[in-house]
Here is the input.
Amino acid sequence: MEEFIAFIRTFVGIDEIDLNLVLSKFRERSVSKGKTVLKKGQIANQYYFIISGGLRFFYETSDKENTTWVVFKNEFFSEISSLNPQIPSRFNIEAIEDTKLLVIDKSDMDFLYGHIPVWQEFGRKIWEGTSVRMIDQILNFQTLSAEERYMQLIRNSELSQKIPVKTLAAVLGITPNALSRIRKNIK
Here is the structure.
């Protein structure tokens, strides 16, 4: 819980009374590698903070899985395209390694937003950061070569070390063979 408290305090100043109320709404959950947190078609009703481990967002087509997003330790997230409009998710969220989460239900998050002004600020800053990350990812796909995207991605050593080559290639929007060629050319 200490890591989560430190995470919160990097975004907002929060007093002990409000912090204790926030923490009382979260519960810990463990997810084994390969298990799902959310399945396509379910409606997202929770927010998550990753204590340890990692998860991937993916969707399936008739011939393959397409990984669109990967999250790791000290990230706060939800399947926001399902959560806010309360519509079925288009994604599966799966543990790529054994993962420990802190979980809060949407109703509890809404309660905190309504009763703790600094928590609204926290939420705004989290979603602004997520929006920037998504915009960067879109622009990278439109303006960078696959090799340039790979070079940016490996700056996050956790990402390049913890996810399988197939998943890493999918995040980059290339085939595993193309990723192998890029890696070979870089060495």
In short: Strands lie at 27-31, 36-38, 46-52, 54-60, 65-72, 76-77, 92-95, 99-105. Residues 117-143 form the longest helix (27 residues). The chain has a mean pLDDT of 91.
